[in-house]
Amino acid sequence: MKTTLSITAVLATAAGALAENITIPATNGSLPAAGANGCAPGYYPGSDTVLFTVPYTYQQVLSIIGNYTNLTWSGSPPNSVTTNNSQALTTNDWTPGTARFYDISGAHVIETITTYSKPATGPYVEIHTLAPLTVAAANVSFYSDFDGQVWKPICNGQATWSNFTINYCATNATTAGQVLHMLHSTDAMTVGTFLGGQNFTSCGALAGGNGTASPSAYGGGNGTGSSGPSATSSPIPYTGDAVGRMSNMLFTGAVATVVVCVGMSM
Q1: 53: which strand partners?
Q2: Which of 34, 52, 204, 262 is 20 to 30 Å apart from 89, CA to CA?
Q3: Domain map of the chain by residue range?
């Protein structure tokens, strides 16, 4: 309980950055004004969460994901991602308002940091906006005001658990959810592949593990979304603040831990 509370405090503090005046760079990096459903006209709300655990230390994971403009683990070639924060290229100190720009699968991507925290002992917290883009191959357009990831050490530091959560608006929320779930699942798996390709099963299976259960190594997501006004199940747009959304990311992990504990005890 003490560990959970301390992590919650860290996330809550980091989320406070969202209260700052964040400047979205360039006109085409801005987010549309929200309509009655929380999205721009012609767009519909959805959300997706991917949970994943790799049997590698937090420091090892940080060596892969810890540079905001190095997205080789997400499919972008080396040195293909640019930024409006040239100073951070030297210091590797990424701050709210920093944007990165890159092209992938025919889409031009602009992601602007709203919250960023990278303590040496974890957890790593990164939240950014995603400017409107189109994935032509899937015939869908979407954008997001909350695209977050958390990486935190578990199993006495011998493994690292991650949570990718995005709340988005899309021309077809179901299709967008499928695309985003695939992308985030692949990203998480690629981090493990870069570090050696071992699969996580349990803390006890690791050398010197304490046997404490942890979230599954396999991604799971809610994939909720509506494809339009006629959808039979339309999610309610999230109206809480950033602290609430980040707390939910942590809570999702706590629930997963409980589920695995119950399964193992049986």
Answers
A1: 161
A2: 52
A3: 2-23+43-226+234-265
65-88 in b/e form (b: 16+ CB < 10 A) is bebbbbbebbebeeeebebbbeeb
Lowest mean pLDDT among 30-44, 77-91, 132-146, 242-256: 242-256
Contacts of 198 (CB under 8 A, 6+ apart): 54, 55, 56, 192
> Is pTM beyond 0.85 here?
no
Residue from 107, 116, 118 nearest 143 by CA: 107
Q: Which fold has domain 2-23+43-226+234-265?
A: Alpha-D-Glucose-1,6-Bisphosphate; Chain A, domain 4 (3.30.530)
| 118-139 confidence digits (pLDDT tens) | 999 999 999 999 999 999 999 9
CA distance 148 to 115: 9
Instruction: Classify residue 44 as left (phi > 0), alpha (psi -120 to 50) or beta.
Output: beta
β-pair type (140-154, 159-170): antiparallel
- 123 cis-preceded (ω within 30 degrees of 0): yes
Q: DSSP strand E in 201-243: where?
A: 224-225
